Amino acid sequence: MTALPYAVDAETPLRAAELETLRTQYEKEGEMAGIQTKFNYAWGLIKSSARSDQQQGVRLLSEIFRVSPDRRRECLYYLALANYKLGNYGEARRYNDLLLDKEPANHQAADLRRSIDDKVTKEGLMGVAIISGVAIAAGVVGGIIFRGKRR
User: Fold this and answer.
1) Largest alpha-carbon pair distance within the chain?
2) Are the C-beta atoms of 41 and 22 separated by less than 8 Å?
3) The model's pTM
4) End-to-end CA distance of the chain
5) Residues in CB range of 39: below 8 A, 6 or more apart
6) What is the CA radius of gyration of the chain?
7) CB 42 within 8 A of CB 57
8) What is the pLDDT of residues 49-106, one digit of tens each?
9) How far apart are CA 79 and CA 36, in angstroms?
10) Which terminus, N or C, of the chain has the lesser number of Cβ atoms within 10 Å?
11) What angle do CA 21, 83, 42 make, to 5 degrees?
């Protein structure tokens, strides 16, 4: 079994020339593209900083997951990673948990789980702060309006 990269690996995009090489190979093979070629291209796409590339990477990985049982382990991890980058934390957690169910001692998946949980917590706290700020502002505006009507 090959080691999976840590989540930070996905944060470093390939150079444009590297991604173009993967794209060219994939397009050259066309409908007959091999699983490895498709996987390499999907990997490059999810490392991209462009959301549309990441989404295309998810589509390719989903295809590989369906047709190639021997690549499912890697696909689960990269689907989790890609969804994490896209901000789809529920999907990221679902794929990652499937991998952790099969490999509870997988350090990379455990690391990704912590990253997902941290993001959900951070964004949840930001959401609460925003809602609280809006509620306070509405209360202040309401108080001003109410005072204005009493005069």
Assistant:
1) 79
2) yes
3) 0.75
4) 77
5) 60, 61, 64, 71, 74
6) 21
7) yes
8) 999 999 999 999 999 999 999 999 999 999 999 999 999 999 999 999 999 999 999 9
9) 16
10) C
11) 20
